[in-house]
Write a structure and sequence with these properties.
Blueprint lengths: L8 E5 L4 E5 L5 H11 L1 H7 L6 E2 L4 E2 L6 E6 L2 E11 L2 E9 L8 H12 L5 E7 L3 H9 L3 E7 L6 E8 L2
Parallel strand pairs: 7-8
Antiparallel strand pairs: 1-2, 2-5, 3-4, 5-6, 6-7, 8-10, 9-10
Length: 166
């Protein structure tokens, strides 16, 4: 299924039963806590959560309209923030609950997000420079490292990745 149904389900992958739907206000508390758990290793290592997590308000910085919920067999397993700019797209972040990691949900979600936006021909995202596991993950999905960046808030270095679709 690759079309909106009552503005809820907006994508599905048959192999893992991954469903991507729009995020609602009711999803935010669950996804916020899930994001904290997902990014806890980075927080422990670097003392910072990704910029999207707003600890004071227990919310996310990106507008809710950019939020996606990742479900597997009707269970919320993660979230993502996706922005579209004409034929370009950006994955602001994607996260999977730690107990659901290493099951292929993140990979399937990334591929499903690409399918949801068939007009997007160039995808971009960034990753902490030290996070070698994620470098390999995104590279296995066809992303290429195209540059470097420094997060202004934390001062941490990262790499910019891009994927071109034909």
């Amino acid at each position: 299924m690759n079309c909106p149904i009552n503005n809820e389900i907006i994508g599905e992958s048959r192999s893992k039963m991954i469903v991507i739907r729009k995020m609602t206000r009711n999803d935010v508390p669950t996804l916020y806590d899930m994001a904290l758990r997902s990014f806890q290793p980075d927080y422990t290592e670097y003392g910072f959560y990704p910029p999207l997590i707003k600890e004071k308000t227990k919310s996310f910085l990106p507008p809710l309209m950019l939020g996606k919920v990742i479900l597997a067999d009707d269970t919320i397993v993660g979230g993502a923030f996706v922005a579209r700019f004409g034929n370009k797209g950006e994955i602001g972040t994607i996260f999977v609950e730690p107990v659901h990691q290493k099951k292929g949900y993140g990979r399937q979600a990334m591929l499903e997000i690409e399918k949801l936006y068939p007009r997007i021909k160039k995808w971009k995202l960034d990753v902490l420079a030290e996070n070698n596991h994620l470098h390999g993950f995104y590279e296995s999905l066809g992303y290429k490292r195209i540059g470097e960046m420094t997060d202004k808030a934390s001062g941490l270095n990262g790499f910019v990745y891009e994927k071109l679709l034909l």
